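Researcher: Let's do a round of design. I'm pasting the structure tokens now; please hold your answer until I've finished.
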């Protein structure tokens, strides 16, 4: 600024000071809203440890000694031994189009969700996902159950019983546009291959009031906990499989509550909730993990993680160990598709 007048220098300094002050006020405003700088993965509380540096959609083995998880969406399934920390690739020795989910069956075999071919993310996820069984030894390719599925599956802890949902997207000739249906069935052996038997329709719903997704059995498989999606919100409900009676456990007009893993005794469940995230963040992108007591219109709701305190982060896809003492979940980003994770973490309940 050689040759500038002193008055011009003063005006420039005042402008710089005002800009600095404005930026400081913006930063202070962000902090006032409860958002922190930094990374929740690096600032863990004493009861949370990191299990893997990659992966998503964890599942506990029946004996709680291993955790299965997906490498990525439309990727391979892995299993990690909790004692040795050795990781085993489950689906790498045969050709496939990529899987979305892996879980354990009570037999110790794996239940996979994936498509036979890949078209694009939206089409393949919404139209072409199927159910498969992979033997525990992983030596042979998974065997199809010859049935499509919408989103996730509920698997009994005690018997080879599952529940799932279908929509018009998978079966346009059977299910009208905008409707979703939850079914239950048993996985049985037929001539050395798994197949579905005793298939029953449980619930039917119409969007936009509700789109169904099965989550977990409880009470000796007589009750099914499920999510009712009413975009951009979601609610926690359950249905008595003997009587068909539906119970609402958490449904608030402007709050997102997606039910996840349920405790072995069936007394409480985990919820991905937007509660405490702010009025403009009541959706699936802004969630943390909460523990909900399963009683009608429950108000016993306890926050377990604080990933959402950090701008850009969320915690998601929690599952409860079979002894009810630990929770496996994933670290996620709120600008990425649902289910995408960046490592598995273990929370020990206090």
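Researcher: That's everything. Go ahead.
Model: Designed sequence:
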């Amino acid at each position: 600024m050689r040759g500038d007048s002193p008055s011009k220098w003063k005006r420039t300094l005042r402008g710089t000071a005002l800009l600095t002050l404005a930026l400081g006020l913006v930063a202070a405003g962000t902090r006032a809203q409860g958002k922190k700088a930094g990374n929740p993965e690096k600032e863990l509380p004493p009861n949370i440890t990191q299990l893997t540096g990659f992966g998503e959609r964890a599942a506990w083995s029946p004996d709680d000694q291993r955790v299965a998880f997906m490498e990525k969406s439309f990727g391979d399934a892995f299993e990690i031994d909790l004692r040795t920390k050795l990781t085993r690739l489950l689906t790498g020795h045969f050709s496939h189009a990529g899987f979305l989910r892996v879980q354990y069956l009570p037999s110790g075999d794996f239940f996979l969700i994936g498509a036979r071919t890949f078209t694009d993310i939206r089409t393949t996820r919404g139209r072409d996902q199927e159910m498969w069984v992979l033997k525990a030894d992983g030596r042979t390719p998974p065997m199809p159950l010859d049935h499509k599925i919408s989103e996730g599956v509920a698997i009994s802890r005690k018997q080879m019983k599952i529940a799932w949902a279908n929509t018009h997207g998978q079966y346009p000739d059977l299910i009208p546009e905008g409707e979703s249906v939850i079914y239950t069935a048993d996985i049985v052996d037929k001539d050395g291959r798994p197949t579905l038997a005793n298939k029953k329709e449980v619930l039917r719903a119409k969007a936009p009031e509700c789109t169904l997704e099965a989550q977990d059995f409880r009470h000796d498989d007589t009750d099914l906990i499920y999510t009712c999606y009413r975009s951009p919100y979601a609610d926690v409900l359950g249905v008595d499989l003997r009587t068909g009676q539906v119970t609402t456990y958490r449904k608030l007009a402007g709050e997102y509550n997606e039910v996840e893993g349920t405790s072995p005794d069936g007394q409480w469940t985990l919820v991905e909730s937007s509660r405490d995230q702010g009025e403009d963040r009541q959706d699936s992108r802004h969630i943390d993990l909460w523990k909900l007591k399963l009683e009608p219109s429950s108000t016993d709701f306890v926050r377990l993680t604080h990933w959402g305190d950090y701008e850009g982060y969320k915690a998601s896809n929690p599952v409860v160990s079979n002894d009810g003492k630990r929770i496996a979940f994933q670290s996620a980003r709120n600008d990425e598709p649902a289910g995408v994770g960046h490592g598995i973490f273990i929370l020990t309940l206090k």
